[in-house]
Structure formats: C-alpha cells, structure tokens
Design brief:
Layout: E1 3-4, E2 22-30, H1 33-43, H2 48-51, H3 53-59, H4 69-85, E3 90-99, E4 108-120, E5 127-138, E6 143-154
Parallel strand pairs: 1-2
Antiparallel strand pairs: 2-4, 3-6, 4-5, 5-6
Length: 160
C-alpha cells in the first residue's frame, strides 16, 4: 500500500493505481455561509435548514444551519479529481453516496480515497476501470460522507 500526499502530477494512468493505495487529498476547504446560501439559490433548494439562521437555531435538532449535502458532495468530489480522475476518459458510476454526519458553516472538509479494485477493459486495450472509495471528513476527523465510484482511465503505454 502506498499513501499519496496529493503533490504529484494531475491525474494518474491505469498502471499507477494499486489496490489498497490511499490518496490524501489536499488542501482542505472551509465551507462558509456564503458558499452554502449561494449553492442553495443556484440549485433552488430553499429549505430553511440551510438558509434561515433563525429557523435553524430554533426549530432544528442541530441549533444551527446545516450545509446542503449536494455542496458537501461536490466539494469532496472535486478534491479527488487531481489524483483520481484527472486523466479520466469517463466517470462511469457513483455506486453509493452516504451522508454520515452534518457539515456546518465554518467547518473545513478534507478527503481521502482508497483504491478498492481495478479491471482492464475487455473491449478496449488502451484503458481500464478503477473503483475507489472516498471518505470526506471534517476538521475533527469526523466522517461526513462516503461514496464509491468507478472511473475509466487510459493506460500509460497507449496514450499520447
């Protein structure tokens, strides 16, 4: 198993992925109230849990605004691109996405990805499919979400 620190080239070829490798994506990203409200307005998610501080403080179990899950997922997914899908031919599938704990305004999220499987393409010898599991976590090392995805990436010896 190799632990990658995120300071390598953009993307990886099929041969560079090894089952068990862990990619620690860096840097983290602090999510602000502005980020959350803007994302909610852009996606037309007007739930008061995300955009109404008075409602969140007085009417919810958390007593504060919760960052909308699609934003948390988008940020965590984006953090993985440079190492996991930077050379991708296609993102094929998100097998699972689980929101494990809430993220609040001011939380900083980080991500790490483990390579769980890789298979050479049976129809195209110039590529393979890599399966990875990503864990997003906050500054307290609490897991906030997990997802598994499959990425089609080129092989080194056949790319230009």
């Amino acid at each position: 198993m190799t632990v990658h620190d995120g300071k390598e080239t953009f993307g990886n070829f099929y041969e560079e992925f090894t089952i068990g490798d862990i990619f620690k994506h860096w840097p983290g990203r602090t999510i602000t109230e502005y980020d959350d409200v803007l994302h909610c307005m852009q996606t037309m998610n007007h739930h008061p849990l995300h955009i109404d501080t008075n409602y969140a403080e007085n009417e919810t179990q958390f007593g504060q605004n919760v960052v909308v899950g699609t934003l948390v997922y988008s940020i965590i997914f984006g953090m993985t691109v440079s190492e996991i899908s930077g050379k991708a031919i296609a993102n094929l599938e998100i097998e699972s996405l689980k929101h494990v704990a809430p993220t609040f305004h001011g939380d900083t999220v980080y991500a790490e990805t483990t390579v769980t499987d890789k298979v050479e393409s049976s129809s195209r010898p110039d590529r393979g499919i890599v399966t990875v599991s990503t864990r997003g976590y906050n500054q307290r090392d609490e897991t906030v979400l997990t997802f598994v995805r499959k990425v089609m990436v080129p092989k080194r010896e056949t790319s230009n």
